[in-house]
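DM from R.C. (forwarded with permission)

"hey, sorry to bug you on a friday — could you get me a structure for this? deadline for the figure draft is monday and I only need the backbone to look sensible"
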Amino acid sequence: MRWSFKIVILSLIFLAINIFPVLSDSQEAWYIDQVFSNMTDEERVGQIFMPSISPLSGNGTQEMTPELQSMLKKIHPGGVILFARDLSSVEQVVRLIDALQNESPTLEQGDKIPLFISIDQEGGYLTRLPFGPRMPGNMALGASRSAVTTRRVAKTIGDEISSLGINMNFAPVLDVETNQNNPVIGIRSFGSDPNLVTELGDAYIAGMHDAGIICSGKHFPGHGDVDIDSHLGLPLENHSKARMNEIELVPFKSAIASGVDTIMTAHIIFPAYDNSTNLLDDGTEVATPATLSKSILTGLLREELSFDGLIITDAMMMKAIVDNFKTGDAAVRAVRAGADIILYPDPVDEAYEAVLTAYQTDQEMRARVDESVRRILAMKEKYGIIDPLVSEKNPISDMASRIAHAQEICLGEEAYAVEREASEQTVTLLSDRSNRIPFSCSEMKSIAIFTPTMLFTNETSLAVEEKCNGQGYSPEIFAYTYQNETELSEEQQQSVMNASLVILGTSSSNATQRTNEYYIPQFSRDLLDFANDYEIPVAGFALNQPYDIIFMQDVPIYVATYAGRTGGQNIHSAIRALFGEIPITGTLPVNIEDENGTVIFPMNSGIIR
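My reply, with the result:
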């Protein structure tokens, strides 16, 4: 009797005796054994790959194409990752994911192994969905100090992506932001205190689980104290094991105890755990990043920290990897090190063929891959992605109803209410020199707004208009985008001199941007000096990271919004708070140091109003 028929018989027995559709440990193991034994070598190796569905360059892939279909049939991947370039509307995403699952690997017996459909939907700075609310990101939630709010935000994000058919989210970020010049983490971190990151990280994990989503803690063993972006180079983290145990590893240890499903690796060198080098074909030696380190993935994460979930590499197309290792070689090294899933290798067929060859010629590699495949199948069974007892996990079967349901979840008022209420708790007032807050719309004849991007300019202008118009006042608003400008025009000078208030938005994401001619250019410094000369009140808005005040410590009013690249309710909440509509309760979740390393605003700073 074919194993699939045995599953059906087992299901009927369970249903007949009114047992809930959950396998016991022994039944789960038997089921996984049956699935595994019916897989070919190619299908097993395919399960450990999670490619992008579209190339890095271009407009993305928003529907099933012959090229995508061919890749899925050739690689038999265990999952795929979606990026913003692949997504446009609720209906498009639901239909795309349905098409992907229809092309998921099919065993010779005709049984499907549905895909992990993954995404980086962290909230805030890293938000892939182009629709729905832009939930506050991690540092904003850190400013709120609320585990309850964090869990609610994560649950809402989880509900949204689940309604679309996405079952895995690469979140939360568990990196402790101890380096304000970090070019890649920044406001993606909950803060600089490992205990705060731990508390909110655990809450985020609970929220994902509330929504039935597989979550991932990242980037192990810690990406919070580097000054090189691993997308662009290979960072070095030279801390001792003692320091790592006191800071970087604390949130990961707690996440493991809290049942985090997967942990994503960091493409970073950690000599304290692995000081080995790799001899490449051209004779050069390259230090071993965590993603390729058996000492870190197996020795530290598996054995010392007792993590039994899935280990997923960070994207293997990042320059930290591709500039130093060949695609196929890197994939093989990652698997040997202990990785269960190879995320976004490019080109994926090269990585797949390299691992398949190693699998078929090396018994140690074969055992290593088989171990990962069993973990992957077990995770899919745990979350009902493959399920012998329920033929259709989603109770909504017809496409029209699924789309309508997803639109209600993603675009409905409930999700926007969560975003609005959460963002209200994040506004952080660091400076109010003349005790001017709250402002009154009745006293505003005109307001001059300057930000470095058109998106921020429009968002801030809209927030001011909504606030004052709602009170029956219509101050004249002069809005400017100062990107790449070098000096104030005569028109801008006149707008500032006539203004009752100047809002100066800045949006840096690293130290370089805080000193170049884009985010904190001479233009913004000159604008502040000009306004101060005429005693025009200036409200500095940190639209991204809170550190911009380093170069504008004389700004009369300074607010950290943690909005990231997309604005959203964080900006609206900041305006409403400055005009007294909502209380200001946020406190700084990081230290802010000046250029000499002196702390000018310690963690927990914040004027409560």
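R.C.: lifesaver. The chain has 21 helices and 18 strands.
me: no worries. The chain has two domains: 42-410, 427-601.
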